[in-house]
Amino acid sequence: QVQLVESGGGSVQAGGSLTLSCVRSGVNLGGCRMVWLRQVPGKARELVSSIASDGTSSYADSVKGRFIISRNNSKTITLQMNSLKTEDTAVYYCAACWLGTTGAYRYWGQGTQVTVSS
């Protein structure tokens, strides 16, 4: 069994920064890619960033150059969010082990709210 727990969400003004953390407990993920997704009510969930076990990362165009995903150790990944915009407001989820269809992952965190005000 795997558990993912996010932390670090909160409220910030536009232009500010926040860092989200995701801590894994339980069995090893066996090399699964870990990702951050976000969702705004009424909109489709968006893949924000992902990181492979070898550290290879990718980003959505909407956050490229502003967000940085890191693997701190075998159990923790972070998402450093800089130059935040009001449109970054969403619930952010940590997830792992893609199931092969869009937005489908085997393991999910509970989500953490990020609110960016103008």
Walk me through this protein's architecture:
The structure is a single chain. By secondary structure, the protein is mainly beta. 0% of the residues lie in helices and 54% in strands. The protein has no helices and eleven strands. The strands form two sheets. Strands 2, 4, 5, 6, 9, 10 and 11 form a seven-stranded mixed beta sheet that branches. It has a four-stranded antiparallel beta sheet with strand order 1-3-8-7, with no helix packed on it. It is globular. The relative contact order is 0.32.
Topology of this protein?
Elements: E1 2-7, E2 10-13, E3 18-26, E4 34-39, E5 46-51, E6 57-59, E7 67-71, E8 76-81, E9 90-98, E10 105-108, E11 112-117
Parallel strand pairs: 2-11
Antiparallel strand pairs: 1-3, 3-8, 4-5, 4-9, 5-6, 7-8, 9-10, 9-11
Summarize the main sheet: 7 strands, mixed
Q: Tell me the radius of gyration.
A: 13 Å
The mean pLDDT is 94
Query: Shape, please?
Result: globular
Structural class determined from secondary elements: mainly beta
Q: Give the N-terminus to C-terminus distance in angstroms.
A: 41 Å
Q: What are the secondary-structure elements, in order, as H or E? A: EEEEEEEEEEE
Approximate helicity band: under 10%
Q: Give me the number of helical elements.
A: 0
* Strand residues, percent: over 45%
* Quaternary structure of the protein: single chain
Give a count of the beta strands, DSSP E runs of length 2 or more.
11
Residue windows where pLDDT falls under 50 for at least 5 positions: none
